[in-house]
Amino acid sequence: MLLIFMIVLYGLVYIEYRIYKTFITPFCVIGGVYLAFVPINNLIGIRFGNHLISNRTIILFLIYLTILFFSGFLFRTIQRIFHRKEQERIKDLNEIYSEKILGKENLIFIIFIFGVLSYAVSLFQVISVYGINDTKAHSFGIFAHIGFLAKAMIPFIFFFYTKTKKKKYLVSIIIFFCILIIFQGKYNILITLLSFIMFSLMLKIKINYLKIIYLIIGLFFLAIFAFILIYAVIPNMIIGNYNFSAMESSIQFSIRHFFHYLFSPFITANTFFFNPTIGGMQQGIKAILNPFDTLYQQLSGNKDFFAPIIALWPEVAVDGATANIGGIFSEAVLNIGYLLAGIYIYLLGIFIYFSYFIFYNYRKNVASTAYLLSLISFSFFSNFFSLFSIFEVYIYILMIEFFVLDRDLIQFKFKFKKYRSH
């Protein structure tokens, strides 16, 4: 079954690449992850103590990946029929978008600094209430929400640094990531990093794939470093334990934890896929649509928000390690069952492909599409689209692109006569 999975998935990735002439597409970024990680776990990971991903689970992975692939069928068809010759002007569109960003350089930087300062205030609030050792997932209040502006602005600030090499941009980026590290949010760090990497790559259609490989390797080691910081260095520094052997033991634990954690979403799917709607359909729908439910509760003045936390902790390795993350596909099934999960994945795919289509042909929403691609890339870990904080950052990016960069964000014109004349 593993071989069939690899052949079919490779074929789907190749089809999408042939149409868009790039691997930076909605299906390629998530399909590539499954194409790499599932075989690695079942051929190599099991030798290091990971449990096997079952054939039944692999079949369901392939089914839901195929649903995601076909959600972009309409846009791929339009792209192939009507926009085949449009790529002659892509370079010009990149330059126009870049000029728009540079034209708002000072305003964007001011907004970013405002967001960083607000996030710093939020961090001090959290430390004063919970202590520095318990900052993870505890951001709260108006300053936290304003601080999310910094996450939305980070691709633009990185862009400014690459264009101008001004130290103020580099220093502000470092300060912002230091705050993220103290908040101990692995996903916040990795998604934010990947979003500005995607943003940079998407502004250059002709991509150096060797650079992509270097970026992936760099991101991988950065993730390991983040785990060592969060699970070894920071805890030992907080308690004042600078003993070399204790630090070494903590680092070894954090590295083992990283590799179990990395493959756990694929392994826990062995359990999640076969316990559909385990918490009840009503709770499952609330979990899947959590951003909208949370928004409604906030507007209603209700502070008792629903937290979409999975109670199941399946074993993922022979040493007894467990995890409660299953990736977007198995988590969707766990919450709302097989059929609704398929519909959910299909509709989500249409939304992402629509955004990608606008980006690819008009360059109207590069940053927001880059953020969506970074989310779908990391959706093998968890369903980030069900988190309100993610939704909030995405809305901020859309607002920035619409109101600051271009009021005509949704310019969607098919010039059929022009295309036919060619």
Low-confidence stretches: 408-422
Helix content: over 70%
- Specify the biggest β-sheet: none
Count of helix runs:
17
Cα-atom radius of gyration: 22 Å
Kindly report the average pLDDT value.
Answer: 81
The ordered string of helix (H) and strand (E) elements is: HHHHHHHHHHHHHHHHH
Number of strands: 0
Distance between the termini: 46 Å
Task: Explain this structure.
By secondary structure, the chain is mainly α. It contains 17 helices and no strands. Helix 11 packs across helix 14. The longest helix has 36 residues. It is globular and about 55 Å long. The N and C termini lie far apart (46 Å). The C terminus is likely disordered.
What would a concise description of this structure say?
The protein has 422 residues and is an all-alpha fold. The chain has helices at residues 2-20, 26-43, 55-71, 73-82, 90-103, 105-130, 141-164, 167-182, 186-202, 209-238, 244-272, 281-288, 290-299, 327-362, 366-377, 388-405, 416-421.
Give the tags.
422 residues, mainly alpha, 17 helices
Question: Layout of SSEs?
Answer:
Elements: H1 2-20, H2 26-43, H3 55-71, H4 73-82, H5 90-103, H6 105-130, H7 141-164, H8 167-182, H9 186-202, H10 209-238, H11 244-272, H12 281-288, H13 290-299, H14 327-362, H15 366-377, H16 388-405, H17 416-421
Helix pairs in contact: 1-2, 1-3, 2-3, 2-15, 3-14, 6-7, 6-8, 7-8, 7-9, 7-16, 9-10, 9-15, 10-11, 11-14, 12-14, 13-16, 14-15, 15-16
